[in-house]
């Protein structure tokens, strides 16, 4: 059982079926095909608003290309210290934006809090050309520590953004896991709360390789498309990105996969807690951050579980990520195995 | 029959099989998996030299990431005016290299000639900090106009590069088509001729989405891997790039596909010439540039053929590209259809 | 007599006086001083329009910082092949703009012609994300070959820019020389003709080191000021840039200096023609491009003249640039010296 | 009395004399003149080592151009949170380096400590392509809070750099003030301690506008010269940068000016302490950070003193900077004025 990350999982049957079905016919390149042409409508229905969809194949690309239009080369992007863009995307943000600076701040369980954000930003605006002023806020939903922003929390952040004339971006690499937890409408936690654009992740949750930039401000589309091409992220056989995305949202496959992953994480949490471990904070998505003894960690590894230590939260803290294909029955059986 | 481009084709059965086979198991992310670990060895065997392989999903990414280590932000990349990097990759080269300038020159059928190159470059070197000095030469094999560099031609270019201390890069988006034509060893026309790195294209010739950067100078690997990550081109489910590439070169699928495409182009050329058309220059790969009357063009479109006009070669010139899945029998039947 | 360039000249007495006068008192930094605060008004009067002035110390900085707001990272800047930004500013334009590409074209005596421009641009617009579309046109006044755009010529270019929704930038490194020749109002050949911004050069024509970005579209000011700071071009002792500029335009020093340089060039042309040389094209500013025998070139060098060969115009062509401090009496005496 | 910054001061008589002397003759441009040609030798003597000198006109340019060769686009620059490159140079570092990230850390009085640095860096190296690894350390001498690194402190930092294979850069905007305090040989605290390059500031300490990049690793010179030109920082009338620098170091003018500024700061500290204020930390250069009552602050302002609040150190903390031209007699008289 591999809990090292959700991206150790393969792609799901629905996506294999879609790719297979589309594997034998010719179609126009670069998004001119019938499947690609359906994307905007399909996601507009999903989000209950006219949106523009620009698919790419990685979360880093989705995040950085989005930010390239949400912040100037002289501006700053406020994010949590734990944010993927700050910790795991090399110098991507500066590269794509032409120099913009990340302005990391703290907050519980990798979440920004509106009040703290307001205070942080207030100290940074209007300082003239020498300093970097925040022009955009980036939040991750679900966060890198597996927590999930509630609707009201995003709304409050959206209001701080409006107050200081900043854009609001959402890194949704695990947006499906957040939605499976929140059970609200996708609109409530995005554009209705002030989000300008989201990277709508599919790769971790059952796709082979596709994360979609979804623009709630469709005026951004032309420049985003140029930024995508310029950085080598426009696929010639674009339909294979489209077909993955369409299969992913059709019949709520994305929510089914994420719900399964979240449930698997809960099942695993139950097992681990029974073994004497504790969670550093509530597990709301498909990630667990677990405090446990070296003994227990060793026993789990002996039982075939794969997972990473997470030293930034403590020497005895470990991360477990459950994917869409986690075997819940097998997880439950761990109670027996571990005794 | 769609001759608009070779990237209108789907992916080939061997690659579907490979993807399917690999669709149901977990594996380490970011290239830590067993398939990804086989890439260097497989391509080292193919090229008869120790190489480093860094797969990405587009030709633009493969070209621009490669060039980012072959030229400084202050230098120039000599290429043909028709080069894909000059005509079809937006401002990608400047973006990835931090500012390097394309220095386009002419040559017959989109090929650089060693003598012309030497003269061109000699006028540009040693001009001090105000001017852009050429640091790299980029050639396309097969070229954007369907011609193919002979081994001796690449060798001669390689010598000019050594003379002026320039790197030599090969855009191999259609390298398979060139090799199917040349029938030489891949080493002869690459590293043995002085090529430092090649973008080894698979997407156009039967893959879903993968072009590999193959480094003959393996010392470039660490920086190229950083450049790939930084630009969002490192896939988490990296194995799906690896599995495509391994299936592509196994049992010479790449040469079989390209040989078929080249043969289809020849069959189409025969048909068109019989109808009164002529080729602007010899068709050595899978692309035809055809001079014909508006009448004939209309007849072909009525018969269901799709293709583009190519005004840069003349108002009455059209491009036909045959893909790995072109139906040669159907092409031959055109003789009957067209009368 | 040094005709190698006009930047071999020192700075002029009026500017020394201004610098000296300002050398002994404290003043706010970064443009908060009284002299800097006068710049906008002084240049608004000069140009008969409300403008914003951002001084820097080199022409490359003035050009590239201006262009950073007139073209996107995905766009192109149309210019003449001979343009300083194309030939003499390294990879500056791509650096400052985040990747924008120069799209050089031809035209007589280094001038773009409106008709040719229209045709050139028409073939480049609306080609989609793969290609670079022209977003800005840059002309040099006076040009790198010493010719001067007439008012109507700039107007016609301005109309082509409006037609294709492009910005118009003027590299005015030798704007004073152009104005001394044209004798029109500075407004006529700039904003009234459609120019959005000019680099108003002073360094070559009597300043120590200052070229001013003058924005006719003042909405560009905030970003240009950020671009200046970000690139290290905001001076702490900003008043010394201001004092140079104010002294330069006060009492028409700029036109007096340029008029002298132009007259010196004419005087030199008379001498050279008498000696059997000919001009490759009319000398309208302070630069001469002279076709002459090696014999005559040798005689001139023996007589102590310094000047450069200009091989791009021919093996027997040489450039002579007269500066604001050229000694016309001594030039005239050459008739005697050379016999 | 203006203590807002040392850059409110004008330039000093020795530099006016040098500029004046050089104001009436022609000389080769772009550093080909006799004065510019003396720079390397003059600074090699000053530092007792063969160095390469590349003058620019601002500290931001000197810092960022230097860093562009000391860190890759994928790397990090460790610095103090208070560092000028982190707080006052906009997004300059990312711009010039092509994306490199600042990795700020803490330390007393704006100084990095070797032990803390070693610990900080150890946690950041070898984390793979996803994360930013430190490639360079930048320290400021004297620091932004007026403290000065001792020779042994720089040496210890140099050793940490060697240990982790990082470059060491020194922002010497106030290097003269540090040297006037340390009274050691300039070599001891720079190349002998492991510093690869320094921005040798002159502007704040009596020049009009010149800060020199001094390369102790002369192999960096060609790329640094390209980086300077590319960013618009190569002056055509380069001799005026050279003449300022030569006058600045001749007869120890730089140390005389800095010694005066430091003494003025001490005199002011004595006055303020007598008035009931206290220093937040020892004043070693020409800057004071003063904790005092609003009452005293008001009295000082009434007495004509100009200075800034420094809220990052506390609501009741203020900064006073004494320049080379501070009037020590007048400062001493404050005792009488303030009563």
From TrEMBL, chains A, B, C, D:
Requisite cofactors: pyridoxal 5'-phosphate
UniProt organism field: Thalassospira indica
Quaternary organization: Homotetramer.
Record protein name field: Threonine aldolase
Gene3D superfamilies for the chain: Aspartate Aminotransferase, domain 1, Type I PLP-dependent aspartate aminotransferase-like (Major domain)
Family per record: Belongs to the threonine aldolase family.
PANTHER family (UniProt xref): L-THREONINE ALDOLASE-RELATED, LOW SPECIFICITY L-THREONINE ALDOLASE
UniProtKB keywords: Pyridoxal phosphate
Residue ranges occupied by any Aromatic amino acid beta-eliminating lyase/threonine aldolase domain in the UniProt entry: 3-292
């Amino acid at each position: 059982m591999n809990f090292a990350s959700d991206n150790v999982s393969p792609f799901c049957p629905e996506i294999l079926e879609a790719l297979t079905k589309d594997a034998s016919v010719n179609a126009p390149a670069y998004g001119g095909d019938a499947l690609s042409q359906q994307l905007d409508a399909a996601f507009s229905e999903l989000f209950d608003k006219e949106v523009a969809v620009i698919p790419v194949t990685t979360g880093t690309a989705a995040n950085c290309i989005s930010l390239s239009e949400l912040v100037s080369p002289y501006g700053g992007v406020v994010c949590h210290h734990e944010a993927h863009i700050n910790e795991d995307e090399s110098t991507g943000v500066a590269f794509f934006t032409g120099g913009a600076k990340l302005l990391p701040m703290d907050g519980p369980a990798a979440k920004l809090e509106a009040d703290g954000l307001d205070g942080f930003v207030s100290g940074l605006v209007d300082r003239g050309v020498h300093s970097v002023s925040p022009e955009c806020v980036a939040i991750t939903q679900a966060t890198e520590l597996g927590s999930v922003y509630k609707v009201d929390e995003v709304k409050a952040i959206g209001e701080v953004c409006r107050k200081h004339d900043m854009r609001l971006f959402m890194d949704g690499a695990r947006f499906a896991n957040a939605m499976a937890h929140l059970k609200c409408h996708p609109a409530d936690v995005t554009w209705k709360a002030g989000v300008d654009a989201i990277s709508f992740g599919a790769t971790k949750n059952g796709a082979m390789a596709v994360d979609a930039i979804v623009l709630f401000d469709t005026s951004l589309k032309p420049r985003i498309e140029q930024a995508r091409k310029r950085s080598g992220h426009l696929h010639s056989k674009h339909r294979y990105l489209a077909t993955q995305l369409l299969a992913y949202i059709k019949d709520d496959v994305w929510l089914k996969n994420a719900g399964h992953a979240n449930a698997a994480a809960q099942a695993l949490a139950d097992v681990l807690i029974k073994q004497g471990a504790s969670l550093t904070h509530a597990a709301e998505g498909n990630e667990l951050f677990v405090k446990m003894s070296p003994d227990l960690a060793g026993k789990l590894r002996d039982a075939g579980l794969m997972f990473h230590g997470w030293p930034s939260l403590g020497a005895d803290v470990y991360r477990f990520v459950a994917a869409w294909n986690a075997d819940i029955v097998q997880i439950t059986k761990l109670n027996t195995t571990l005794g």
